Every structure is written in C-alpha cells, then in structure tokens.
Amino acid sequence: MQAMKTVAEMSVEELKELLRQVVAEQREYFLDEEGWLVFTSEEAYARYLACHPDKMPSELKACFIDENGVKAYYSDYELTEEGLKRLEEARKDLEAGRLHSWAEVKRALGMEEKVTKSSTPTAPSKTSKNSRKKSAKRFSAKSSG
C-alpha cells in the first residue's frame, strides 16, 4: 500500500488531480458530452424536477446515476384511472392468494416439460391472442371448479 503524500510532497499535476477528485465528489450534478444534466443521486434529481413542476421529466434533458452506475430518468407516463384500478385489483388478488405461479399455470394447461438428458430446449410456439384467451378460460375453469 502506498503511503499518502503531504501537499508539500505532491507535484502540481498530482495536486490538480486531487482537487478534481474532491470537487467531483462534492458536486451534485454535471453536464455530460451530450448536453444532459447528470445528477449524482436520485434525491438531487428529484429536487431538480420539483423545481420545474410545469415540465415533464423528458422535457428537462436531465437524468441521475443509479446505484448500478447507469443513467436513469423518470418516465412521463402517468397511470390512467383504469390502470390504477387494475393495479389495485392485482394487489387485492395477491393479498387474497388468487394469483397462481407459472408452474401451476403450466401444470393446469398440461404444459409440463419432461426434461431428459437428451432433450434440447425449444423456442416457445407463437399462439394467437384468441388461443391464449381460450387457454386462460380453461385454466380459470379448472382452478375454480
């Protein structure tokens, strides 16, 4: 492990680099090469959005660095009343235990895969929307009766 140098022992270039690092750690945002305002935390990004309530997130050309180091931004999408109702119904179904695992669905539809050493995975077949609806109806009829 390398011993820390005192400021007197540093070259001008080393001192400049140290100052760049300190400033980078202290600032909440920077401008990237594409002209986006990039925030170093989601909290700073959210504060910035709150200062511009008249604009959608996509209009501000701003983002934040998430915990994985990826640039992220809030969506402009807002749920409709119907979407909110569907989410609430799904939450209630989950709490009531009315949702089924993928394994249960496959078993009910007779889609259980028999795995052998010589079998190779296959791509799922494409089915029509009507076919999927019929399968869903069969499944709900089996599970309720």
Word description of this protein:
The chain is an alpha+beta fold. The protein has a domain at 18-102. The chain is built from 5 helices and 4 strands. It has helices at 12-26, 42-50, 81-96, 102-108, 129-144; strands at residues 29-31, 37-39, 62-65, 71-72. The protein has a 4-stranded mixed sheet. The model has no long low-confidence stretch (mean pLDDT 77).
List keywords for this structure.
alpha+beta; 5 helices; single chain; 145 residues
Give the topology.
Blueprint: H1 12-26, E1 29-31, E2 37-39, H2 42-50, E3 62-65, E4 71-72, H3 81-96, H4 102-108, H5 129-144
Parallel strand pairs: 2-3
Antiparallel strand pairs: 1-2, 3-4
Query: Taking strands numbered 1, 2, ... along the chain, how are they ordered across the largest sheet?
Result: 1-2-3-4
Work out the radius of gyration: 27 Å
Q: Which spans have pLDDT < 50 for at least 5 consecutive residues?
A: none
Q: Which sequence of SSEs, written as H and E, runs from N to C? A: HEEHEEHHH
Described by strand count, sense and barrel closure, the largest sheet is:
4 strands, mixed
The averaged pLDDT comes out at 77
User: By helix and strand content, what is the structural category?
Assistant: alpha+beta
Coarse morphology = elongated
Strand residues, percent: 5-15%
How far the N terminus sits from the C terminus, by CA atoms, comes to 70 Å
Q: What's the helical proportion of residues?
A: 40-55%
- Our count of helices gives 5
